[in-house]
Design brief:
The structure is a homodimer of 150-residue chains. The first copy, chain A, is mainly α and 150 residues long. Chain A has helices at residues 2-12, 27-52, 60-73, 96-99, 101-122, 127-148.
């Protein structure tokens, strides 16, 4: 049985196989984790945004380095959405993160996919290609923020 | 000249070629960044620690997944140590981060090297190998915390 469970865990993804809460000692730790991961991701995403919006000169290598970090970071924050950590203050998650979980998870997956596409697009070293991919990725951020964030 | 500078930036590393502060809009953003990156890293490092210390059963695949994230995350927080963000409260960096910068940077590099070694060691799927690499990595965390953290 243990062997079957282990094999199953390997198939479905070892980390996500555990309930998210089991990975954190306290709910506050999970909140701090998701906020930290989103913040780090947002800083790197913002640096690409600054190029896309012409606030800083385009530099393909810098864009690619930042997009790589965005793609890596995009995998992390969702484990931090443990039950019982909804809020009402600005910036906190609404309860529908958990009551409408399948849709929330689909939105998270979409964002991760667009982040991966952004990392690939950024390697093209072309501002127009970067702009398109950045726009698609930014739309997935906004979609979830609109629906699930106070 | 611009071409030479660009070539140089590529050689020495595009992101670190810029002064760290130039990457953040406000010093508070940099502080939030380094704290977030360390917290995320610490959570994953702690999960390996729990196995090493026998608090949770050893699972090689989970250890390897966590070590991979630790190695990736180890590259990030140091950009957040921008000038003027020393503190006196518990957990804040002491001023010697900046006055003794070469030594601090060497400590950071050592930690990153040990995190990379941990990621390699974790793939061996052997608890004793993991323990050794975890101990070496943990020692690099402690060394800097002892010297540079209030």
């Amino acid at each position: 049985m243990r062997r079957i469970l282990l094999a199953l865990a390997t198939v479905v993804g070892v980390v996500t196989a555990l309930p998210a809460a089991a990975q954190f000692q306290k709910p506050e730790d999970a909140v701090k984790y998701r906020k930290g991961a989103f913040w780090v991701m947002g800083q790197h995403f913002g640096r690409i945004g600054a190029m896309v919006q012409g606030r800083v000169p385009f530099d393909g290598a810098v864009a690619a380095a930042n997009a790589e970090i965005v793609a890596d970071m995009s995998k992390l924050p969702f484990a931090g959405f443990v039950e019982g950590t909804a809020g009402t203050e600005k910036g906190t998650p609404k309860a529908n993160v958990w009551t409408d979980k399948a849709k929330f998870d689909a939105g998270a997956k979409k964002m991760q996919e667009e982040a991966a596409k952004l990392a690939t697009a950024a390697k093209a070293n072309n501002l127009e290609t970067l702009k398109t991919a950045f726009g698609s990725a930014a739309a997935t951020c906004k979609a979830c923020h609109d629906d699930y964030r106070n």
